[in-house]
Design goal:
Layout (H helix, E strand, L loop, with lengths): L2 H7 L2 H8 L4 E3 L2 E2 L12 E2 L7 E3 L1 H19 L2 E5 L6 E5 L9 H5 L6 E4 L3 E5 L3 H11 E6 L4 H11 L10 E2 L1 H4 L15 E4 L6
């Protein structure tokens, strides 16, 4: 008896499990058939929903639909922005020279300069707020950084406190390891613009 014939003889609930593509998995459980799925299955999208994994087919379909909807309905492309050396500069306070330490005092007086946990000094690039406001009219924006999630969230509380520009579309090294990939950006590559200071990206 073939696998197809065998699966047709199974009860309907078991057939659903056998035929399921496990497109969306959360915490190792398929959202459709409730089967346990290997943690290595598909691609993790923790930055969107903690514990979420999408099958490779689900990723492809979602990218295609997202791009079509963004282009047709919103008339927007997708913009992937790096943080460090693109939107801002950051330096450990311990690395500041004596001549640069005056910036720590100025951080309370300026809107483009902050200290983060008294350990890091962050300075926005000129016209970042104006850039984000204008770019938001033409793009659905992502942040993609090699910093960790805690760092990215702390910085974005300064740049985009109301999540107007990026929402939860923040990808960090916690999700992608130490190399950037468009696999984690839910948009077709043909509809993505990347702004990053690193040439190989």
């Amino acid at each position: 008896m073939s696998l197809i014939e065998n699966s047709c003889l199974e009860p309907e609930s078991k057939r659903a499990t056998l035929n399921c593509g496990h497109f969306f998995v959360r915490y190792g459980i398929c959202c459709n058939c409730r089967s346990t799925v290997d943690r290595e299955y598909g691609r993790a999208f923790d930055y969107l929903v903690h514990g979420l994994q999408l099958s490779h087919k689900a990723v492809a379909v979602t990218k295609s639909l997202t791009t079509q909807l963004a282009c047709l309905n919103e008339r927007k492309l997708h913009l992937v922005l790096d943080l460090d050396h693109t939107l801002l500069h950051s330096v450990m306070v311990s690395r500041l020279s004596e001549g640069e330490k005056y910036l720590l005092r100025e951080s309370d007086l300026r809107e483009d300069l902050w200290t983060l946990d008294r350990e890091m000094l962050i300075k926005l690039r000129p016209f970042v707020h104006e850039f984000l406001k204008e770019a938001n009219e033409f793009f659905s924006m992502y942040v993609y950084t090699m910093g960790n999630r805690d760092y990215a969230q702390a910085v974005l509380k300064l740049i985009d406190p109301k999540k107007v520009y990026f929402g939860d579309r923040v990808i960090t090294r916690d999700e992608s390891g130490f190399s950037k990939t468009l696999d984690l950006v839910l948009a077709d590559e043909c509809g993505v613009v990347i702004v990053d200071d690193t040439r190989h990206v």
